[in-house]
Design a protein that fits this description.
Layout (H helix, E strand, L loop, with lengths): L4 E6 L3 H11 L2 H5 L6 E4 L16 H13 L5 E5 L7 H8 L1 H8 L2 E4 L5 E6 L2 E6 H4 L3 E4 L4 E3 L3 E3 L1 H4 L6 H9 L3 H10 L4 E6 L17 E5 L2 H11 L9 H7 L11 E4 L12 H7 L2 E3 L4 H16 L11 E3 L8 E5 L6 E5 L6 H10 L1
Parallel strand pairs: 1-12, 2-3, 2-7, 3-4, 7-10, 13-14, 14-15, 15-16
Antiparallel strand pairs: 1-11, 5-6, 8-9, 10-11
The structure holds iron/sulfur cluster.
Length: 361
């Protein structure tokens, strides 16, 4: 897979979607040597279920291990460390990681209890997990979701789980942005498989999941994060650690030149907004909307709200979904709503494009 590639798959079955993504590369050729130590790093920031919008879906882990073992890779480790104040083992227990360890005979490491190596990049010294540093092939499994301090979190920020708690505290003292970029010059996963099935609207610890039903795979974390930012209605420059990581040479933010391939198309399904998402949903008129399309609209509305632009919508609702095909309306999102007076193309459109349309109203 080339560094400027992103492959996307839509659906609800995390295991089946993962298998299709890694078979499309194919992963066995990327790793090569069957004796390679493969380290898998999910996002277990807190002890919470994936459905909350905080953590990686378990189907991704099991599908990945089954694929690796079926193709002769026997040296597999799952490693992660929750944020300061949370116990990683609680997160392992809640999500069934001990059962996965015993079922497949893989290693499971709480990086909080790991040995650490002190490494420095751009004047910042941090303690990085030996397990992560010794990986022969490192697979990052972040969740694309909102973040209260950095706006969003995906590939680059998920690397914080490789640090000691002491270094995690230092990162907050240093302002997060530059340290996140610097960390990614010290720990460099070979592959990123993004869980964008139900990532949280605005907080890394979950509570307001946005049904998105999408996963992505790629090798450039800067490109993937830049793309993820656009899906959430941000420009890559707004998420400060992304351009810093690009300036360090970790990757490219150039989404325009990226080769983006969809392995399938999203399908219409029932939308069940909960929590804060329901409030934003009151400004929408979904009719047979695909989850990824509707999620883009929700993220765009969230950005519009943050920018103080909700008042201009008044009582208007934004149409979204296949049920609007061939109809006329005031505002619509996605090619199904091309009959709208104000519309944005895309199937599905990005939140950044929807936001730009809404801001022009
Ligand atoms: S434009 Fe229509 S078909 Fe395409 S993702 Fe949106 S709702 Fe689905």
């Amino acid at each position: 897979m080339e560094s400027n590639e992103i492959r996307i798959i839509y659906g609800k079955d995390a295991a089946a979607m993962t298998t299709k993504l890694i078979e499309s590369i194919p992963l066995e050729d990327m790793i090569g040597d069957r004796s390679t130590q493969v380290v898998i790093k999910p996002n277990l920031v807190v002890p919470a279920k994936p459905e909350s919008g905080a953590t990686t879906h378990m189907g991704i882990i099991s599908a990945l291990i089954e694929y690796l073992q079926d193709h002769g890779f026997g040296n597999i480790t799952i490693a992660e460390g929750s944020w300061v104040g949370s116990n990683t083992e609680d997160a392992f227990r809640l999500n069934g990681y001990y059962k996965i360890r015993d079922k497949y005979g893989v290693k499971l490491v709480d990086t909080k209890k790991d040995r650490f190596r002190k490494l420095t990049y751009d004047g910042l010294t941090m303690e990085v997990s030996e397990t992560m540093l010794n990986a022969g092939f490192f697979i990052n499994l972040p969740v694309l979701k909102g973040h209260c301090q950095t706006l969003m979190t995906c590939c680059l920020k998920n690397m914080k789980g490789c640090l000691s708690d002491r270094s995690k505290r230092d990162f907050h003292r240093w302002g997060l942005m530059q340290p996140i970029a610097a960390l990614n010059m010290l720990v460099k996963p070979s592959l990123h498989i993004i869980d964008s099935i139900s990532g949280d609207l605005d907080f890394e610890e979950g509570g307001n999941p946005v049904e998105t039903d999408r996963m992505m795979i790629g090798t450039d974390p800067v490109l993937l994060d830049a793309y993820g930012a656009s899906l959430m209605g941000f420009s890559p420059e707004e998420v400060e650690y992304i351009p810093i990581a690009e300036s360090y040479g970790r990757g490219s933010m150039d989404i325009e030149s990226a080769k983006i391939t969809e392995l399938n198309k999203p399908e219409a399904g029932s939308i069940r907004p909960t929590g804060a998402v329901s409030r934003l949903a009151s400004h929408t008129a979904p009719d047979m909307a695909c989850s990824a399309c509707y999620a883009s609209l929700i993220h765009a509305l969230k950005r519009l709200e943050e920018n103080g632009g909700m008042r201009k919508l008044g009582n208007m609702k934004i149409a979204c979904g296949q049920g609007w095909k061939g109809k006329t309306m005031e505002i619509g999102s996605g090619v199904c709503c091309s009959g709208a007076k104000h519309s944005v193309k895309g199937c599905p459109p990005s939140a950044a494009d929807i936001l730009a349309m809404l801001e022009r109203l």
